[in-house]
Each structure stands twice: as structure tokens, then as C-alpha cells.
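[Automated response] Your request has been received and processed.

Submitted sequence:
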Amino acid sequence: LDLLKGAPDLDVRPDSITLNSAISACGGAGLWGQSLCLLDDMPCASLVPDIVGISSAITSCEKTCLWQPALAILWQTCSRRLEPDLIVVNAAMSACEKNARWQLACDLLARMPEMQVKPNKISYSA
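Generated structure:
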């Protein structure tokens, strides 16, 4: 993260790949808050969040059992007219399941066809 903060001083502009990698690294380290901040800051860097960064952010929420931010990111994704993929939806469902929000997980499962996502075994087990 320090490298990203210092990038403008070096006349280097981070791209989507750089920020997606940082989002994933923060999520893997349990720094879900940093992961979400990086995703939110992408438009400030004239970058559009893509499904890779969104997936990493939702997965970081899922790993730390945060269902509310996971669902917020999922709904933002849909409102941005991005198509969530199976990994994104399953991670959001898993975040709900880990917090005993099985009704929300079932609602997501029911909405998968309208999101044009085909459920798999992981979807049904969440």
C-alpha cells in the first residue's frame, strides 16, 4: 500500500491490474477495509472497477464474514451494469451463509438466473 501511495511522487499512475492486485493482497491479509477503500477509490484514479477487483473485494468480505458489505458491492455491481460472475455471487452467498443469513443466501440463489449466472454445487451448498 505504501508503494501505491508513493506512486504519484514517482510519476507512476497505477492501472486496474495494479489496483486489483492490491485489493486481492489486502483481502488475503484480512485487510477487508483497505480492500474496499481501494475498490471505492478506483474512479478517483479514472479507473472503472471491473469484475476482477469486485470479486477480490467480495471475497475479502466473505473471508471475514461480512455479509452486508459483500451484498452492497454485489448490488453496486449490478447497478453499474456489470455482470457478476459465478465467483462473485457465490462469495456473496457464502458471506451470508457464514453469518446465518440463509434467507439472503436463498434469495441470491433465486436471483442468479436474472443475473445470468448459472448456479453450481457451491451455490447450492451455500
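Summary generated for your ticket: The chain has a mean pLDDT of 87. The radius of gyration is 15 Å.
If you did not submit this request, please reply to this message.
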